[in-house]
Write a structure and sequence with these properties.
Number of helices: 19
Helix content: 40-55%
Largest sheet: 5 strands, mixed
Number of strands: 7
Distance between the termini: 41 Å
Shape: globular
Length: 466
């Protein structure tokens, strides 16, 4: 923060940090408050679950109008039979934030570079990684090179698999087929269904949203002896809820706020904000907000995995017992922060863990063990493509915060263009990649780094996850 700098530099550091806060808020607000929509005829929505669009607004031509929130956009990209429908929705999501956010992101990168220089560092990446597990930008890049060596061939194999699936669906020779970005999710789901009989949409009936929340509470009680009790409070929205976290003796540990469903102007992904850290010395208790945008009809197994992941961050905050607030909760080294939550992702594919659902929802039909096992196998499909994409995000993030400040879109187009899918002109992913603007600047590699830690953590629960 600049406390140890000479007076002039300290004042400049304060101004830079204040400006970075404002720029980050501007960037995130443009994405959150976007009013962008895409209109489709019902015929164009072939394959998309009716609950996604049946009650949506219609335009003057009677077309279905869908927003770009993930409960609306993702099912279109994953399920629409017509490629043109998938493409239109995918392109719309890739334009979120627009030119204004590209300009803001460039200013953020420039200000971070200047801030690092005040402390004598040649890059913002080196400035922030010196206090993380990885230690330096060079170490982070070397780690990503190792990841590249592990996933590159798998990525090519996955791409060939999708090409075969598209060739079969379009009655073309595989060598003439080009798999586009908007094809990946669709054909991955098709192969999962064909090979493993897994239909995520069909799982929603098994996992009602409120019961799913109570399920993750039950997991916490079994693993950590923590129970969650509803608390009557007037909150920011009538559907938001407050829960007191208590230990086995009834001692209050903290408060969890939960906001499950989508609405206009709300943060449009899933996250936890630990907005008040514990301070044991003064008796201050922690509070965290768990925010998602789930379908009211229920969760897929993949979304239940997301819920447990985010809930892991909430537990990280609420179970903290540090003497002072600054190091409390998830204020740990950033490249460790995801590890506890990533560890828990595997839990929802364990039949013994999912059996807890019967305790919170006796009327919910249990997901058959065979289906759980097939879903666990299916989730590994196209992992090469997934990690190849994560690798690109991480390398781009470090490059944007490296020794040269470059125009964000030009840098992205060059780096994405070197991948098997290439860059799609007209798209501007950096304008809506929120981790770049937030506290994950020069830290996205941490998702891959902490996953290595999470894999190790899981070994302690190999015999019994509960």
């Amino acid at each position: 923060s600049g406390v140890a700098l000479p007076a002039a530099k300290r004042a400049r550091a304060q101004r830079l940090n204040d400006e970075l806060t404002r720029l980050t808020q501007d960037y995130e607000r443009r994405v959150r408050e976007s009013r962008d929509t895409v209109a489709f005829s019902e015929a164009e929505l072939e394959g998309v679950p009716e609950n996604v669009w049946r009650n949506a607004r219609r335009d003057a031509q009677g077309r279905v109008v869908l927003g770009l929130d993930y409960p609306s956009a993702d099912p279109v990209i994953e399920r629409a039979v017509q490629e043109a429908t998938r493409e239109r929705m995918w392109r719309a999501t890739m334009r979120l934030g627009g030119e204004a956010n590209l300009k803001t992101l460039q200013r953020i990168a420039a200000r971070r570079h200047e801030l690092a220089a005040l402390f004598g560092f040649g890059s913002y990446a080196d400035f922030v990684t010196r206090r993380r597990m990885v230690g330096s930008e060079a170490n982070a890049l070397a780690f990503l090179d190792a990841v590249d060596g592990a996933v590159r061939e798998r990525e090519r194999t996955d791409l060939a698999l999708l090409r075969e699936a598209k060739a079969k669906a379009t009655n073309q020779p595989a060598e003439r087929v080009v798999v586009r970005r908007w094809d990946v999710a669709y054909f991955t789901e098709q192969i999962r269904h064909e090979r493993h009989g897994v239909d995520q949409e069909a799982m929603r009936v098994h996992f009602p949203p409120q019961r799913s929340l109570e399920f993750v509470f039950a997991v916490a009680q079994r693993m950590f002896g923590v129970r969650f009790e509803p608390v009557e409070q007037t909150l920011w929205h009538e559907e938001a809820r407050a829960y007191a976290a208590r230990d086995a003796d009834g001692k209050l540990l903290g408060t969890l706020f939960v906001d499950l469903f989508p609405r206009p102007d709300k943060y449009n992904h899933a996250a936890v904000w630990p907005f008040r850290n514990v301070a044991a010395k003064s008796g201050r208790l922690p509070a965290a907000a768990l925010v998602t945008n789930f379908d009211r009809q229920g969760l897929t197994l993949a979304e239940l995995e997301t819920l447990l992941h985010e809930f892991g961050h909430a537990l990280h905050s609420l179970l903290s017992a540090t003497r002072y607030s600054i190091p409390g909760g998830s204020s740990v080294q950033l490249d460790f922060a995801e590890a506890p939550s990533q560890m828990l992702e595997d839990w929802v594919y364990d039949p013994a863990v999912l059996a807890l659902f019967r305790q919170v929802c006796a009327e919910c039909a249990p997901l058959p063990r065979e289906t759980i096992e097939r879903a666990e196998r299916a989730r590994h499909l196209a992992k090469g493509l997934f990690f190849g994409r994560q690798l690109l995000y991480a390398r781009y993030d470090l490059a944007l915060h490296g020794r040269r400040v470059e125009a964000p879109l030009a840098l992205w187009a060059r780096m994405e263009g070197a991948t098997p899918f290439g860059h799609v002109p007209g798209t501007m992913f950096p304008a809506n990649f929120g981790h770049l603007a937030s506290g994950y600047g020069a830290g996205y590699y941490g998702y891959l780094w902490s996953l290595v830690v999470a894999e190790d953590l899981r070994t302690a629960f190999a015999a019994d996850r509960l």
